[in-house]
Amino acid sequence: MARIRVFAAFLLAAVCLGASGLPQGTGSQSFQAWAGFGVGSSATLESTAENPRGLLASTSVQKLIEKADDHLVLEVAATVVMSGKTDSIPPSKITVQAAPDPSIGVTQTGSEDVAAAGKTFSCKVLTVTNSVAGPNVKLKIWTSKEVPGGIVKLEMDGPSLKIRSMLKSLDVK
Q1: Burial (0-12, 13-18, 19+ Cβ within 10 Å), 147
Q2: Residues 6+ apart with CB under 8 A from 118
Q3: Which band of pLDDT confidence, cut at 50, 70 and 90, is reported for residue 158?
Q4: Can you give the residue range of the structural domain that contains 105?
Q5: Which of 34, 74, 96, 139 might form a disulfide with 128, Cβ 3.0–4.6 angstroms?
Q6: What is the CATH number of the domain that holds 94?
Q7: How far from chain centre, in Å, is Cα 34?
Q8: Helices of type H across the chain
């Protein structure tokens, strides 16, 4: 189970990204992706991660639990399945500051319609550079202002890890 939890923590770090592709806690674009929604709003993502040790599937829920002018607090929880074993990752709180982190670059590379959670979303396609995941990691995110946190779809490709995430459901308050 320890191996599942370590791998799950990395997967959660990858999928718990704001609409801009910035990790929660790093600034204004992530903040803006949640700021237009009420407390209690949530987004559920289904993800798969593949590395040399195997395939991991997870369902993660990000829920807005506190909102202020200068920060937001999210609660993130997940269920992870690896090698036929299921593990629940306890909820954790993540604070998202309104101030940006200029060291992470985000470029809009296009727009695309994406079908997810029983709906078609008109999405911005973003590419992230200086990702916290590492310099050789390609991170592409499809975002919509209609979704709490913004993420509709995410693809992360690294030297030894591939992650695919898709919005499963959302609850707007």
Answers
A1: buried
A2: none
A3: confident
A4: 2-171
A5: 139
A6: 2.40.360
A7: 12
A8: 2-15, 28-35
Sign of the C-alpha dihedral, residues 141, 145, 146, 150? positive
Q: How many domains does the chain have?
A: 1
Q: Which amino acid is at 4?
A: I
Q: 5-34, pLDDT tens digit by residue?
A: 444 554 555 545 443 344 444 456 778 889
Q: What is the dihedral of CA 104, 109, 111, 113, to 10 degrees?
A: -80
Write the burial class of residue 51 (CB in 10 Å: 0-12 exposed, 13-18 middle, 19+ buried).
middle
Amino acid (one-letter) located at 14:
A
In order, the DSSP letters of 37-66 are S-TT-EEEEEEEEEETTEEEEEEEEEEEEE
The β-bridge partners of 44 are: 61, 169
Q: Which has the higher per-residue pLDDT, 129 or 151?
A: 151
Both tokens assigned to 8: 């799950």
26 φ, ψ to 5°?
Answer: -100, 0
> Does the structure show a pLDDT above 70 at 163?
yes
Q: What is the pLDDT of residues 103-118, one digit of tens each?
A: 566 778 899 999 999 9
Residues across the chain: 173
